UniProtKB/TrEMBL annotation:
Residues 130-266 form the GST C-terminal domain. Residues 14-127 form the GST N-terminal domain. The gene is yghU. NCBIfam families: PRK11752.1. SUPFAM superfamilies: GST C-terminal domain-like, Thioredoxin-like. Pfam families: GST_N. InterPro entries: Glutathione-S-Trfase_C-like, Glutathione-S-Trfase_C_sf, Glutathione_S-Trfase, Glutathione_S-Trfase_N, Thioredoxin-like_sf. It comes from the Bacteria. This is Uncharacterized GST-like protein yghU. PROSITE patterns: GST_CTER, GST_NTER. It comes from Moraxella caprae.
Length: 266
């Protein structure tokens, strides 16, 4: 079916898994007070790849005895990310968001990369001290933040969530996802970790690309087919990424972060 874009785009219900919640406007849609526990940190999130990044650093720091936290589930399919309480701490209405109550004035942090940097810098952990490695860590962290939308919002969406299969879109984003995996594979052929030692760069990259090569991302069934992203993308080709992913997966804090139980909003 061909499509000719109109001169001016207008919103419409596109269908698919997220069609009912997406709008071209920001801001709160309903009143909702965020629950708050008694720990110094309050996390509002979901166990998606972006959410798991932050779970991991919180569990790593908790294991070192440096902090404790409460974690609450933001059900994005129910629109809880558009409640007034959540929008107040994250105007972009995306998980995760964190509030630090250990300071005189509470500090809200949103965007998973920003939360990783905030906590790593505050506790001076998981940041390489060697200037070259530290710079590499920042580069790979920013690479992940800029690249993962092609995997999630691009490949994952059109491969698993779109209401109909679109060959061009799937091919376009499959090509880019495999290119990114090859970037990682070539780097990890010469490095045990992303930047000299285990760091927040590994924590950021693992829930996306590690989960993908280990067969844990985009597996299921949609309206038109069963899907298995690891098979579709021939992830066996990226043996260095698989080796690295298994190394990260075997850390106790990572295991706990991946299965973290999030408390309900009410």
């Amino acid at each position: 079916m061909s499509y000719t874009p109109p001169k001016v785009w207008t919103p419409n219900d596109m269908g698919g898994k997220f069609g009912g919640i997406n709008r071209p406007s920001a801001g709160a849609r309903h009143e909702q007070t965020l629950p708050k526990g008694d720990k110094p940190y309050q996390l509002y999130s979901l166990n998606t790849p972006n959410g798991i990044k932050v779970n991991i650093i919180l569990e790593e720091l908790k294991a070192l005895g440096l902090l404790d936290y409460d974690a609450f589930k933001i059900n994005i399919m129910n629109g809880e990310q558009f409640g007034t309480g959540f929008v107040e701490i994250n105007p972009n209405s995306k998980i995760p968001a964190l509030v630090d109550y250990s300071t005189d004035t509470p500090i809200s942090v949103f965007e998973s990369g920003a939360i990783l940097l905030y906590l790593a810098q505050k506790y001076d952990k998981f940041l390489p001290k060697n200037p070259t490695d530290h710079t590499q860590m920042l580069s790979w962290l920013m690479w992940q933040m800029g690249s993962a939308p092609f995997v999630g919002g691009g490949f994952g969406h059109f491969y698993a969530y779109a209401p109909t299969p679109i060959e061009y879109a799937i091919n376009r984003y499959a090509m880019e996802t495999k290119r990114q995996l090859d970037v990682l594979d070539k780097h990890l052929a010469e490095h045990d970790y992303m930047a000299g030692e285990y760091s927040i760069a590994d924590m950021a990259i693992y829930p996306w690309y590690g989960a993908l090569v280990l067969g844990n991302l985009y597996i299921g069934e949609n309206d038109y087919a069963k899907y298995n992203a690891s098979e579709f993308l021939s992830v066996y080709e990226y043996q260095n990424v698989i080796r690295w992913a298994n190394t990260i997966k075997n850390r106790k804090a990572v295991e706990q972060g991946e299965k973290l139980e999030l408390l309900p909003m009410a």
